[in-house]
Design goal:
Elements: H1 2-40, H2 46-54, E1 67-69, E2 76-80, E3 87-89, E4 102-104, E5 109-112, E6 126-128, E7 133-137, E8 150-152, E9 157-161, E10 174-176, E11 181-184, E12 198-200, E13 205-209, E14 222-224, E15 229-233, E16 247-249, E17 254-258, E18 271-273, E19 278-282, E20 295-297, E21 302-304
Parallel strand pairs: 2-4, 3-5, 4-6, 5-7, 6-8, 7-9, 8-10, 9-11, 10-12, 11-13, 12-14, 13-15, 14-16, 15-17, 16-18, 17-19, 18-20, 19-21
Antiparallel strand pairs: 1-2
Length: about 300
């Protein structure tokens, strides 16, 4: 019995030490990833100097500025260093923050392409990278972020076309891509984004026919495609599935034809903005049935008739 008892204690101790070592290794991995980010930043401004001093190995990662750790595993679950005038490129080690749920680097001066290793952040739900100088083509590996709910890449220098793999993010609710250089069409695969509520791709270089498949996403509340080069007509079926839509912005494109009376089927519309197109004909009486409409922008078209 003594030998059995000793063997059990020895085995238990080995397991305990192994778990402890793994735990230390994990938090050390998080620390190394954040230090790699710190070291990529150019220390040319006061916020960067503050961050360089605060992110020190003499203190716990969980006490660092902008860092949030989970209460259970004590791993980094959120990183928010937005609006700090930080400059630098993003290191591949960020992909090692395997417990990360939210990453907010917005309103800085980060540049370069997104490291492919970010595809390893399988727990990520919120990714905010807007108002930076990031560029390159939108990566196809976005499709690996199956839990992502919000993706904001506005005000950067992303180019190329929209990757169809974005449709693999089945939980995506919000997609902001304003002020980039994205070209081509919206892939038909986007119709599989059944949770999408907000789609904003203003001031890009989208072209081709109006992506009617997008208007089949019944969860959409906001569609804004201002200042692109989209063409075609507004079909009679445009509002058949959009009973939750509150904002429709298609101004500054190359749309032609008449305004369909079926726009009144978007009964929750608060804003209807179709200026700077080539629409013609009468303004349909049915627009008057939009009882919660607050803003109607139709200027710089070839519309005629009177408002009812």
């Amino acid at each position: 019995m003594g030998k059995i008892h000793y063997f059990f204690l020895l085995k238990f101790s080995m397991v305990f030490l192994a778990v402890g070592a793994a735990s230390n290794s994990n938090i050390t991995t998080d620390q190394s990833a954040l230090l790699a980010l710190r070291d990529r930043m150019i220390a040319s401004s006061e916020p960067q100097e503050i961050l360089a001093k605060n992110w020190s190995v003499t203190s716990s990662v969980c006490d660092w500025m902008g860092v949030t750790c989970g209460p259970r595993h004590r791993r980094v679950t959120a990183l928010n260093i937005s609006n700090m005038k930080l400059t630098g490129d993003l290191p591949p080690q960020l992909g090692n923050l395997s417990f990360l749920v939210s990453l907010d680097l917005s309103s800085n001066n980060f540049h370069g392409e997104l490291p492919r290793e970010l595809a390893h952040l399988r727990r990520l739900r919120y990714l905010y990278l807007g108002i930076n100088n990031l560029g390159g083509e939108l990566p196809s590996w976005f499709g690996y972020l199956h839990k992502l709910q919000q993706l904001t890449l506005s005000n950067n220098s992303f180019s190329g076309s929209l990757p169809p793999s974005i449709s693999n993010m089945s939980k995506l609710e919000s997609l902001w891509l304003t002020d980039n250089s994205i070209e081509g069409t919206i892939p038909i695969e986007f119709q599989n984004l059944h949770s999408l509520k907000i789609l904003i791709i203003d001031r890009n270089q989208l072209s081709g026919p109006l992506p009617l498949h997008t208007f089949n996403i019944s969860s959409l509340q906001i569609i804004s495609l201002f200042q692109n080069s989209l063409s075609g007509i507004l079909p009679d079926t445009i509002c058949h599935a959009l009973h939750k839509l509150t904002y429709l912005g298609l101004g500054g494109n190359n749309l032609i034809g008449q305004m369909p009376s079926t726009l009144s089927e978007c009964s929750m519309l608060q804003t209807l903005a179709l200026p700077l197109n080539y629409l013609r004909g009468p303004i349909p009486k049915a627009i008057g049935n939009l009882t919660v409409l607050e803003t109607l922008a139709l200027e710089s078209n070839n519309l005629r008739g009177k408002m009812y």
